[in-house]
Structure formats: C-alpha cells, structure tokens
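Fig. S4 source data, part A: sequence.
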Amino acid sequence: MKTPETYNDGIVNIYRKKEENLTTNRNISRLDDLEHIIQLAYKELSRRQQDLEFADQKSFSLAMKIKTPRPLGGWILDTHCYAVIENVLYGIQYIDTNRTEYFLYLEKVRILQEE
C-alpha cells in the first residue's frame, strides 16, 4: 500500500492581481497589491537538469519547484497567479498536474516590502 504524501516543507500562499490592478502594469511590491486565493502546504522538489533546460526553453529562471495537494472545491491555479513563500514573491511560470497534486515551477520576482 502506498504511503500518503507529506507536504511538510512549508506553506505557500497563492495570490492574483487585484481587479483594479489588472490593466496597470505596475510592479507588485506589497501583499496589498494582490488578492489572496488560497493557502496550501507544499513539498519542495529538486530541480533536475531537465527542469532547468525546460525553464530555459520557456525563457524563465527556475528558482523553485514545489508540489502541493490539489484542493477540493474547484480551485484552479494558472500562470497568472503568484506564490508567496516566506515574504518572497514568485511568479508561477508553469503548472503540471495529476489527479491529486499541483507541481508548480516558480520564478523569483522579488522580496516583498514589509506591510
């Protein structure tokens, strides 16, 4: 029997740009610029050589690769979302999924200003 997966490396908060900021192209510098979507536990995965080559082909710098449980209730993540881990803002550059998990490829954007 397969042991249940653990996601004990930390918590990732997922955000989107607020509606009023969607048309403006200003830099996100604080959490106030974003709308919170969901909080998920995550497990950090190793960045394999093929992951780094994939990121290079897609023109982004892979800072982190994580997996999270896929939440019930129809929460849909996409590459317009942002991930925040320990006050660092990451752009979600690519998402791979299976029935129960998301695999997020993250590019570091910046360290957020304190609120």
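Fig. S4 source data, part B ends here. Residues 49-57 form the longest helix (9 residues).
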